[in-house]
Amino acid sequence: MKILAGTAHRDLAERIAGDAGAELGHVEISRFPDGEVFVKIKDNVRGADLFIIQPLSYPPNESLMELLIMIDAAKRASANRITAVLPFYGYARQDRKDQPRVPITAKLVANLLVAAGANRLLTVDLHAQQIQGFFDIPVDHLYASPIIVRHLRAKRNLKNLVVVSPDPGGLKMAYGYARQLEAGLALIGKQRKSSSDVESAYLVGEVQDCDTLIVDDIVSTAGTLSGAAQLLKDSGARSIRAAVTHSLLCEKGVERIRASAIEELITTDSVPQRIQNDGFDLTILSLSELLAEAICRIHKQQSVSCLFRVEE
Questions:
Q1: Which of 21, 63, 167, 300 is paired with 156 by a 20 to 30 Å CA distance?
Q2: Which pTM does this prediction carry?
């Protein structure tokens, strides 16, 4: 087994390798004067079970091209099996045609990974479950919920907890959290006005005098979260927290969360944080142990189903 990484999130890759009991392999990644990516794998990977760690985070185009070129280099270096490890699968928000003349980029990225030579995909909390079906190679889809649930269970002051889905598409995720936390369930309907502005319209469920937890997979401009938090506050929620797997927060998103009723934003280190969290409570939980255990189990041909469970 060998583990390599691109430049998108070197810190996470080093933690994953350490937790897996392996050393991170040596890769030279540079740019030609015109910006093209150059990759050279310094270690011998012939016949290796190779794992390449690279979230498709900011800047996503650079991260994607680095990953594709690393996969191609590994394939031409005769690696036995190449597993692309994407803590964050970028371009997943465009997973269907919801208006004329738009792409399905989630499928495009799947095609690119397979064409480059990836034999397997390991990822966390896809934007939509059906993206797994875009691949003709095995996909191991992990969830951050066990890590986040353990964090929430340590909070003894949560009473009458209600898990809230900020849109109908996230109801299955919210139901999973509610079942693990033995909490109630609520749903918010929303109308998206633009890529960064969301209008929360209605609430289905009872949150009066309850601690609430909004769960989602991605936050960027925080329009969905801030709108949902305002609706919960107006409906009498006692406290409001948010748990989001992938934090792609921009400055506008930080301003919105800072001005919102959200007391704590819980997220993971699937992508590096680009902004300061001054003015609100930000908790970052690490995926390194989860991904390291998955890598070791895949290498040993063991089941990864146990990683879906929450330890009591």
A1: 167
A2: 0.91
